[in-house]
Design goal:
The chain is an alpha/beta fold. It is 40% helix and 22% strand. The strands form 3 sheets. Strands 4-9-3-10-11 form a 5-stranded parallel β-sheet, sandwiched between helices. A 4-stranded mixed β-sheet has the order 6-5-8-7. The chain has a two-stranded antiparallel ribbon with strand order 1-2.
């Protein structure tokens, strides 16, 4: 899909927008709103071995697969990243990401710091990545949001809260940080970051030829 700059029109290479946060900080709500507002942004659907929550749909929220199938895909190099989180596997299928980036579509990733580290370390895709870490306004609000989700048992909520300090320590590994006081304000901040990153010179395919034409050299 093409992307227009000024009076010229030429193709743009897609980017990978990563949102990470501790559980309950609001990144999933932010991601859903951005997807509703931006037609060029598509969600990267992860595979997981955890149980499906009542509100989730297989193939839309996650690809729910068993541990044996997941480990077979690891051995087949079918993931661009994967991690074990809270005793379950999570991973990003490789094929749909590669297709989207080459076609100029941007992909949104709702993944944790472990998955982000793996993606950033890959030499062939590192330049396509934009990373944002979402912080809660305070710890008590984070706990309230987790309890109000009513998707996890109290023991799971307590376990997630016990991991928050470690998760928060990884914020310096990200390019941008947003404190999520209000969802809509955070969405606007993400949109501004996305808009600027889409204009970076290295993402523009055909830019050199366009400028050469402007200069009368082609």
């Amino acid at each position: 899909m093409g992307h227009s700059i000024g009076q010229g029109s030429f193709k743009r290479r897609g980017l990978m927008l990563i949102l990470s946060s501790p559980s309950g900080a609001g990144k999933t709500s932010i991601a859903r709103e951005i997807l509703n507002r931006d037609p060029n942004l598509v969600m990267s659907i992860s595979a997981t071995t955890r149980s499906k929550r009542p509100s989730e749909v297989d193939g839309k929220d996650y690809y729910f697969i068993d541990k044996m199938d997941f480990e077979a895909k690891i051995n087949n190099n079918s993931f661009i990243e994967y991690a074990r989180v809270f005793d379950n596997y999570y991973g990003t299928p490789k094929e749909p990401v590669e297709k989207a980036i080459l076609s100029g579509k941007d992909m949104l990733f709702d993944i944790d710091w472990q998955g982000t580290q793996q993606l950033v370390s890959k030499q062939n895709i590192g330049q396509d990545i934009v990373t944002i870490f979402i912080l809660p306004p305070n710890i008590s609000e984070l706990g309230r949001r987790l309890k109000n989700r009513e998707q996890d048992s109290l023991s799971v909520v307590e376990y997630r809260m016990s991991k928050v300090s470690d998760e928060l320590s990884h914020y310096p590994e990200y390019q941008y940080v947003i404190v999520n006081n209000e969802i809509i304000d955070s969405v606007v901040q993400v949109e501004k970051i996305l808009s600027a990153e889409r204009c970076k010179i290295e993402r523009q395919i055909g830019l050199h030829d366009f400028v050469q034409n402007l200069r009368g050299l082609s």
